[in-house]
Amino acid sequence: MADLHFYLLSLLTMNTCVICLASKEQWSIVREMSKTGYEIMSVEKITDSKNQTYICRIRAPIPTQIRNDQNFLALFGNAQMKQVSVLNDGVSAVYEAKVSTSLETVLTPPVWLTSGPETLMLDFSPYVTRDKQVSFKFNNCQFQVERKDEMGTNTYKITVTECRCRRSFSGSIGKMTASGFKETWGFSPPYVFPFHEYTYMVSNGNGQVSSIFINRTALEENGVKLDSLKFLIKREQNDLNLDFIDRSKYGFSLP
Known about the structure:
Layout: H1 2-20, E1 28-35, E2 39-47, E3 51-61, E4 65-67, H2 70-76, E5 78-86, E6 92-102, E7 111-115, E8 118-124, E9 132-133, E10 142-150, E11 153-161, E12 166-177, E13 180-185, E14 192-196, E15 208-215, H3 216-221, E16 225-236, E17 245-253
């Protein structure tokens, strides 16, 4: 019964938080409205009698690292990345990611890029018939992050514009052990309460808003912590025959 009371109290707190999103209380800007740190410049596909190779050029912050699923690579191909040039701003560069796999498979290894608080996953489509693509709607996406701290709680509000996408949050709730962090609870109430406003428009005057309420009091009382909180923007193909990027998933770590 005590657990039920605690859960209901948490839900009441969440509802109060959602209402407060429309209030005039002060929010602090964590990230100004702007595009992501990544710009997909081009994707080119080269085939021979046995293999298909995707060459993707991306503008990204310095430094950017590539991360791969080694088990996936062992089965379906290989992926590598190199820095091609440093841009005039001195803080970003052009990187070239190359993914190769057999012509006999429709599965290609995804590419994961990591740059400070930002990550980007790209999954290439084997069904596109053209050789090269240089325009990508992902590049238009912009977002702003705001944060409000109140007694025992934190609330993040993310406004996304110019982007037809799916939005979500990810993270882990658990405890530190001798062997490291161990997840003990799902990413769910009574600790976190994500909320998304949905619209069928690409953008409107106020953008599309996602928010997440974090019950710090509940985390402390139960001796657990929230780890790796991240906001995600997910996009899929607009055209199966023309878009080389089958899926993209952008992540921004929330401080």
